[in-house]
Every structure is written in structure tokens, then in C-alpha cells.
Design goal:
Length: about 280
């Protein structure tokens, strides 16, 4: 497995693989890899010939006061895990290589409408940072495929819209959320939870599953369902940002009769901010 920090070395590797008609699959990450990331890598392996994983803690998607400085960085463990998955290349650039014109110049591409509201309301600037970095990484890696997790559901929708708006020749694949045995979605930020908070944390997913079940049974009082879920979370020390029932693709508010919905939530628990979602469609 190659570890590359330099943009020109990345370019020459990619060019050489492309010259041999090899299909490149790209998994962008911020490192501190867990089983959820490794599921993305395993899926990537099935889609093409070469798997490239980037590890880059992207400063532009963190607001002032968020955890950019303390975000867990574990490069050696990450390299070991990726080598075991037979990843071909790890791209671990520094900030100047990703943003040669400075981080202030980032954000020239406008966030697509699907990135307005929900996360954007509570983390203004987050998606501007995500689209800046992902667009730049796509330019550098020029993948045939890119793989993202469904846990970050709105992020996935934003990237899908960006690929479509810009006409990028990239296929997007998504992988189901990997969970602990008690249902908690894997996240690097779960390590911020105290033992007591960790014991409460699965309530987020349980609450979304219960709400999803009520939708399947035909309950259409969406506002009441969202409020009830928020109260349930608040009763065990969560501070919910939102619980929201949306159309699965557009993320617009849902109206009765909608067959494909998603229930999304974000809530703080101690130092951690957890997000999760459950899809409710004709097939689930
Ligand atoms: O989901 C993440 O880990 C990040 O938002 C991403 C897509 C790697 C961009 O920094």
C-alpha cells in the first residue's frame, strides 16, 4: 500500500492506473477509521480495480469552537487497518496541498438546495466546507466511483446533487450504516461519550425506529411524531437539534401519501453530537 502526501505523486499514480484502463474507486475520510469506514472500503473493492482512501481532517467543515483541533487523529492505526483491507493508495495531504489558494478561498461552489436546513441550520458552513473539499479531492483523484456512508444521509444527498449539477463522470455508491450491537451508529465522535452517556446513546436509533414504525402503520401527524421523539430524547439528557421526517430524495418536508421517506435526527449528548437516520420506503 502506498501512502502519498504529495499531489503530483498522486496524479502520476492515477495517470499510470488510468493508462492501464484500471477503474479507480475513491473513499474520502477524515481518518480515525472504524468498522463503518472499513465497510466503505470493502464495498469499494467490489467496484473497481484500485481503491484510494483519503485521510484529511478538513478544516473548512468545522465551525469556530467545534472540535477541529481535538478531532481524533490516528494515522498509524488507520494505515494498518487500510493495509489489511488491501487498499492500493492512501492519500494523506496537508492543508496547503488541498487548499493551495488558502482555506478562505474555499467555497466557490454553492451548496445545492438539498444541503439547506437540517444539518445546515445547526452547523452553518458545514456543507460549504464539505463540498469544497470533496470537489477538490474529486479533481485530484479523478475516480470512476466514490463511496460514502448512509449515516451522513444529507451529506450523501449533497454530494449526489453536486455530481449531477457539475456533470462529473463519477458514479456514487452508498453503504448502509454500521451499528454497534445495541444499535448505536458507529462514529469517531462516539469516543467523546462518558460511560453513562454511552449507555443512553442507543436511544437515538431506537426512537427513530419507533417513529419509522408509526409511519409504516399510517400515522401522518408528522409534527406530533417529531415532537414526541424530541421529548423522548430530551428525557434522557439528549439535547436534540432536530428530528425530522423528510422525502427520501429531495429532503423536502413530507406530505401524506409519500411512499419514500427518511427520518433524520441530530442530538447532543454530553460532548458528542450524534446523527442518525432511518429510511421508510415501500421496501422497508
Ligand atoms: O464524512 C466525512 O468523513 C467527511 O465529511 C468527508 C466526506 C470525508 C469530507 O471531509
Amino acid at each position: 500500500m502506498l501512502t502519498v502526501r504529495d499531489v503530483s505523486e498522486l496524479r502520476s499514480r492515477v495517470e499510470s492506473w488510468r493508462g492501464q484502463n484500471q477503474r479507480i474507486v475513491f473513499v474520502p475520510t477524515m481518518g480515525n477509521l472504524h468498522a463503518g469506514h472499513l465497510a466503505l472500503v470493502r464495498h469499494a473493492r467490489t467496484l473497481g480495480d484500485r481503491v484510494i482512501v483519503s485521510i484529511f481532517v478538513n478544516p473548512t467543515q468545522f465551525a469556530p469552537g467545534e472540535d477541529y483541533d481535538s478531532y481524533p487523529r490516528t494515522p498509524q492505526d488507520d494505515a494498518q487497518a487500510l493495509a489489511a483491507e488491501q487498499v492500493d493508495l492512501v492519500f494523506a495531504p496537508d492543508v496547503d496541498s488541498v487548499y493551495p489558494d488558502g482555506v478562505k478561498a474555499a467555497g466557490a461552489y454553492p451548496v445545492p438546495p438539498v444541503g439547506h436546513g437540517l444539518e445546515d441550520e445547526f452547523r452553518p458552513g458545514f456543507f460549504a466546507g464539505v463540498v469544497s473539499v470533496v470537489k477538490r479531492l474529486f479533481e485530484l483523484v479523478q475516480p470512476d466511483w466514490a463511496v460514502f456512508g448512509q449515516k451522513d444521509y444529507q451529506q450523501l444527498a449533497v454530494i449526489r446533487a453536486m455530481i449531477s449539477d457539475l456533470g462529473l463522470p463519477i458514479e456514487l455508491a452508498s453503504v448502509a450504516t454500521v451499528r454497534e450491537a445495541d444499535g448505536l451508529a458507529l462514529s469517531s465522535r462516539n469516543q467523546y461519550l462518558s460511560a453513562e452517556e454511552r449507555a443512553h446513546a442507543p436511544l437515538l436509533y431506537r426512537t427513530l425506529c419507533e417513529l419509522a414504525e408509526r409511519l409504516r402503520q399510517g400515522d401522518v401527524d408528522y409534527a406530533a411524531l417529531e415532537q414526541e421523539a424530541m421529548h423522548k430524547l430530551a428525557s434522557v439528557d439528549f439535547v436534540p437539534d432536530y428530528v425530522s421526517i423528510r422525502q427520501a430524495e429531495s429532503l423536502l418536508p413530507v406530505t401524506p401519501g409519500e411512499r419514500n421517506c427518511v427520518v433524520l435526527a441530530a442530538a447532543r449528548l454530553g460532548r458528542a453530537r450524534l446523527i442518525d437516520n432511518v429510511i421508510v420506503s415501500d421496501n422497508t
